[in-house]
Amino acid sequence: MSPREKIEELRKKLNEYNRLYYVENTPAISDMQFDMMLKELQQLETAYPQYADPNSPTQRVGSDLTNRFEAVRHRYPMMSLSNTYSLDELREFYDRVVNEAGGEVEFVCELKFDGTAISLIYENGRLVQAVTRGDGTMGDDVTANVRTIRSVPLVLEGDDWPPYFEIRGEIYMPYEVFRKLNAEREEIGEAPFANPRNAAAGTLKLQNSSVVATRRLECFLYNVVGEELPFRSHWESLEKARSWGLRVSDKMRLCHTWDDIVRYIEGADELRKGLPYATDGAVVKVNRLDLQRELGSTAKAPRWAVAYKFKAEEALTELLSVEFSVGRTGAVTPVANLAPVQLAGTTVKRASLHNADQIALLDVRIGDKVYVEKGGEIIPKITGVDLSSRPVGSIPLEFISNCPKCGAKLERYEGEAAWYCPNTSGCPPQIVGRIVHFISRKAMNIEGIGEETATLLYENGMIRDIADLYDLDPVRIASLPRLGDKSASNIMESLAASRNVPFSRVLYALGIRFVGETTARNIAEHFGSLDALMNASAEELVQADEVGDKIAASLREYFADPENVRIIDRLRRAGLQFAVQERKRGTDVLGGASFVISGTFRRHSRDELKALIDEYGGRNLAAVSSNTDYLLEGANAGPAKLAKADKLGVKRISEDDFEAMLGADAVHGSGEADENIAVSNVRQQSLF
Ligand code: IVH
Which domains does the chain have, with CATH numbers? Predict the structure, then answer.
């Protein structure tokens, strides 16, 4: 291949990878592979300047500017960092700096957080503006959204801050939040985010800051900028920033020698595997600010800092087969079966292939040796193929054209990468998927039926849709294998109890595309009843919080289907709640009953529960005694409390029971309880 052909090939590939990353949200290759290809192209373009092209991917200055926010000019440009994957190159940086300084140099080593860059502007100790990197010169003003991030102080502590300064850092989404968000998105038929970085960047650009607040972004700050700042070193500036309440990582270290730096990098590469957020390298910075100024910067990056990027942990293994699974929404997802291989501490046997575009782009074939990588996702992904070991005679992998479960011809919706099975009412995994969603905990919470039992009931012709659940015959249930009288009566009891589940959860349980838990709550509150919702025009629908054209269209489509209307009528006759119940707030519903709370809860923090008990006329007690009426029991409730309650005959109730007591459409918590625990546990870790 001539250099020119090679240059063209690289440009074409890089453009396609860029499109997949930024437009489709499904990166096809790892960051390192991308960086390596980009570097190769840069070198070729330098060696053969006659082929220069202003449209080459090497000329592209990354930009996150959108037209939805006000673009503002950075007072100090937001530069990026030069980066390397090689310790030799890092050593060159070190030697150059030491040479120019003419003596010993102190460096600060930090983690490189893998999120999205932000500049926070503080005036007189108050946050006045938050701006994205944009193209480095202009950025988007995302202040309203950043104000929702709890680790960003709106007012600084102390009084020795400069009257004006900016502090730069990284906004990120912790793995835990990312996994939950993606699970929720997949539940309602939304494409999942490819990684926590994209999720953080996407969230920061949402129009509605109250949605941003629910996404639980976090922030680490790592660079103070301004004029006549009262510090002599970078370390000092960050220590000061920390004392003003700004969130600075405690994983940074001062290094005096090359060996110190290497030790930091090695330690950090180990440490990051246990961190609750994504990092992709370490950043080495000259500590003294006067030396930083002396070293200056190039057009793009400072000459006093460099990023050393970690290689993502990857493994090479054989692709044995590809399976196509059909979800509740009919989306068909290809999943790779792999020869088992060790990766980041677990054995990997399956990997995601995302969609048809991804398969075509990677050109993966059965029998190929493929690279797998984990990126904060539970399921690892295939990032490349080792072409040198491709077996002779292999053939390209074809995406299926018919549903693997019901045979219907697959369809693709405009603007979406996934193929769908359109046979909504006749395709078994879609039917069972809808039933499983309906009975799930956050929806109707029907105990005694899980995926297995739902499948069994379906296969035995006892349920074909969600309304059939309320016509189930306990005698027939008891006759099924693995079930019996006890299971049958549990199921019947649970179904009866579900008649009290508030309207907002019934609406969520219907499984309307794009209508997740929060959206269902907003819609229920806004319209008050299903009748009002069904009669709403598209213009009226978008009046509800967080409902845009996409959700409005999905709701209209759902209610336009006569089959859905029939199911709803049957559910109505079965006695489910199709209107928001009267708010009993401020009344004495709990009639002075006393409660002890133990454990953690899904929808409310313990403080919220206590406040509800007060508000609705109950009493909070700290310990179980013969005066206690109810033990409100969450996950990991104290065994001593439970035993005592049982001994004294105190009634044990769940969060659901409690909500039912309040008749509670209006009662919803922040669902923070569980997460706080997870976060405080991991904060204990120390470096090295
Ligand atoms: S310092 C002028 N420190 O990585 C120097 N950047 O790939 C400003 N990043 O644009 C950057 N962790 O968004 C610095 N500890 C850290 C960092 C960090 C992550 C990001 C930042 C930067 C990008 C470069």
Answer: 3-58 (1.10.287.610), 71-309 (3.30.470.30), 314-389 (2.40.50.140), 428-571 (1.10.150.20), 594-685 (3.40.50.10190)
